[in-house]
Amino acid sequence: MTAPGGTPARDKLQLRLALRDARTKRKLTQKDVADAMEWSTSKLVRIEGGNVGISVTDLKALLFQYEITDEAEVGRFVELARAAKKAAWWQPYRDYFPPEFITFLGLEASSIRLRQFQQLVVPGLLQAPEYIRVLMQLGSPPPEQQERGFAIRTQRQKLIADGGPEMFFIIDESVLFRQIGDQSVMRAQLLHLKELAARSNISIRILPFSVGVHPGMRESFEIFELSEESSNYALQIEGILRDRLFPEPSSETARYVDIFFRLEKLALPKEETPGIIDERLRHMT
Predict the structure, then answer these.
(1) Quick one: average pLDDT of 122-126?
(2) How far is Cα 257 from Cα 261, in angstroms, rounded to an integer?
(3) Contact 114, 108 (CB under 8 A)
(4) How far apart are CA 247 and CA 66, in angstroms?
(5) What does the domain layout of the chain look like in residue ranges?
(6) I need a surface site. Which of 19, 87, 215, 247 has the fewest CB within 10 A?
(7) CB of 283 within 8 A of CB of 186?
(8) For residue 285, is pLDDT > 60?
(9) How many CB atoms lie within 10 A of CB 105?
(10) GO molecular function terms here (predicted)?
């Protein structure tokens, strides 16, 4: 278990995974532990699921049950629990967005790797400011709603800072041609995309028109890899009316992970992305 760091959402995820790992290593069921602690089973389920926090008193009692008594190790668990309780940056926006979107923000902030396929627009994490502003006008929402949307998207982009998670993007070639805003907006966006493609923790690959029919044609989607555990993925699928979020591993998440890896085999190498963007810029009037 590593020390606290990153975001409260990431610390919360690390804590619940560490507690679950400690229980399974001792071959205890959730009911075994709940009975021994004189808790309801649902309480432990909620703690391990990240739906509720855990007090330091309860945490120490739980660690004792798992035979974790080393002072330094207990101290690391306690630090993690306290860090997980800090307010995340999106707390002020909870009243303005549905719970699924808040969960999405937490999953994205908690990920150790992000994988996204986008066939309509530049992925949100890679959008330039004026490109975002044009998209926020879709549907003519009130100005204050546009500003909230802009603020959240730019805040999300802080994940791109050095030391953030690994990010793998596959973008349909049509996105480079779809006019969002005027020529100056598109030119700034393409230059921004080229700059980001040079980052060490970001891979941006183009899926060319020449591949024809491919497995990602129906939907854009984002995959969140939450730990080094096998298949520990969450998923968001974009929709016209609403997005669909799958916060836990499932057959659905496994299917989209497979689709993403199939798309990687079709996409052009990331080393070619700057040249493709330059070619598009040369043909812009």
Answers:
(1) 98
(2) 6
(3) yes
(4) 27
(5) 8-84, 91-282
(6) 87
(7) no
(8) yes
(9) 20
(10) DNA binding
Q: Do domains 8-84 and 91-282 have the same CATH topology?
A: no
Where do we find the tokens 């993925």?
233
- List the structure tokens of 76: 């690391």
CATH fold of 8-84 reads: 434 Repressor (Amino-terminal Domain) (1.10.260)
Q: Which spans in the chain are helix H?
A: 8-25, 30-37, 41-49, 56-65, 71-84, 99-110, 129-136, 143-156, 183-197, 251-266, 273-282
CATH code of 91-282, in short, is 3.30.870
Residue for token digits 């989209």? 256
Q: Which residues contact 201 (CB under 8 A, 6 or more apart)?
A: 160, 162, 163, 164, 165, 166, 167
Which of the four pLDDT bands, split at 50, 70 and 90, describes residue 3? low
Residue whose structure tokens are 């968001």: 236
> What is the Cα–Cα distance from 252 to 54, expressed in whole angstroms?
30
Task: State what percent of residues in the chain have pLDDT above 70.
Answer: 96
